[in-house]
Design brief:
It contains eight helices and 15 strands. Strand 7 and strand 8 form a beta hairpin. The radius of gyration is 17 Å and the shape is globular.
């Protein structure tokens, strides 16, 4: 499967500008025959707390419709971020569409970022999701989720690839890069970490989007403000890694669960 990582400065609360930059990247990815393109968290708005203004109803989401049309036009799967409202509560979602624009995965961020006030405006999800894309099982996650290895271990029981879309600030970017590699090594999975670049009202973002192999090898590392790289990955590499070095067979999950609940 060919995955296009998109490092994007989408601005802040400016959907028209963000859409135009997304189109530019989708056209580039299409020319390189990408099967799946991955955009940063809250793709068209940036990391906004204005949920009443930028939140959407899932049933008639403008953002979902926009990317569904794009998936059909470019015959390419798409991972993107969107804010959904339900009963007055906002959730931070990562959506995976197939090449026909059909929703294959809809994940609500489990861990709102309380340090950055996200938890005041968003509620967390409570489900890990999975989908099949080009013969590979994928699980989507969002930004702060990266600091919680337990959910990645659970996902890796079925998935061989996990996407992490983010608005991860430059001041903590060293953590981002190390944690992406750590999640890949400990779960023996491909980790696709796509972060925004540029600035919003208060923060600066360096991007540093990465695709990490199950061995921890960095297969892609984006450094330009608006950048794209297409990388081909093979599920057999993850399966072989798990077979040759069967770490999962030595896990003591009954013990871990007991200790975590004490």
């Amino acid at each position: 499967m060919k995955i296009a990582l998109v490092q994007l400065d989408m601005g802040f609360e400016n959907k028209d500008m963000a859409k135009q930059r997304c189109v530019e990247m989708m056209e580039k990815a299409n020319k390189q025959c990408a099967d799946l393109i991955v955009f940063p968290e809250m793709t068209l708005t940036g990391f906004t707390m204005q949920t009443g203004i930028y939140g959407e109803q899932k049933q008639n989401s403008e953002t979902v419709a926009y990317f569904q049309n794009a998936a059909k036009k470019y015959s390419m799967g798409i991972v993107f971020g969107v804010i959904f409202l339900e009963n007055g509560r906002a959730e931070n979602h990562s959506i995976i569409l197939d090449k026909k624009g059909k929703i294959q995965a809809d994940y609500a961020k489990i861990h709102p970022f309380s340090y950055g006030a996200e938890a005041k405006y968003y509620v967390g999800g409570n489900e890990i999701v999975y989908c099949e894309m080009e013969g590979m099982t994928i699980s989507p996650f969002v930004c702060y989720d990266l600091r919680f290895p337990e959910i990645f271990q659970v996902a890796s029981k079925k998935s061989h690839c996990m996407t992490v879309i983010a608005n991860w600030p430059k001041q903590r970017i060293a953590h981002w890069k190390i944690l992406l590699q750590a999640r890949a090594i400990e779960t023996q999975s491909f980790i696709v970490g796509v972060n925004r670049s540029g600035k919003d009202k208060t923060l600066e973002y360096s991007g540093d989007s990465m695709l990490v192999a199950p061995t921890g090898e960095i297969l892609a590392h984006l450094t330009e403000q608006n950048d794209l790289q297409v990388v081909e990955i093979d599920i057999h590499q993850a399966k072989q890694c798990r077979q040759e070095f069967p770490v999962k067979a030595d896990r003591k999950e009954m013990l871990y669960g007991k200790w975590l609940l004490e």
